[in-house]
Amino acid sequence: MFHYTLDTSKSMKEAVHSLESSLKEEGFGVLWSFDIQETLQKKGFEFEQPFLVLEVCNPKEANRVLAKNHMAGYFLPCKIVLYQEENKIKIGLPKPTALIQMVNDESLNKIAQDIEERLIACMNKAI
């Protein structure tokens, strides 16, 4: 699977707050929060499903990855999505280990694995 996704019983607002706290503990910050539902509705589209995209970054890790291969920048910052499906809030991310395979640079595999494990731990803690 290219992604890791889980359910939470928390509201969207509670899940975002909890996720931001757990990310902060791991040295990640939310650079930007993109509310897809709000944006589409402002553009005149009927989109009723809450859907947020959080762009998260750990500056130390970003520097480490980019120092090895600038092409990895195509995948930065990392994205974590939160959306509602069937009255449940889902939290998910594209796995850094899956994305980094497209760069074809084995020196990045360990770094991607470490970042992935840390982000998944943050998500698990947030639920």
Number of strand elements = 5
Q: What fold name goes in the CATH topology slot?
A: TATA-Binding Protein
Low-pLDDT regions: none
What is the CA-CA span between the terminal residues?
21 Å
Quickly name the level 1 CATH class. Answer: Alpha Beta
What is the helical fraction, as a range of percent? 40-55%
**Mean of residue pLDDT values:** 95
Count of DSSP helices?
5
Order of helices and strands: EHEHEHEEHH
| CATH homology superfamily | TT1751-like domain
Helix/sheet category: alpha+beta
Largest sheet: 5 strands, antiparallel
What spatial order of strands do you see in the largest sheet? Answer: 1-5-4-3-2
**Domain module tally:** 1
Strand content: 25-35%
Architecture (CATH level 2) name: 2-Layer Sandwich
- Categorize the overall geometry: globular
Please give the radius of gyration in angstroms.
15 Å
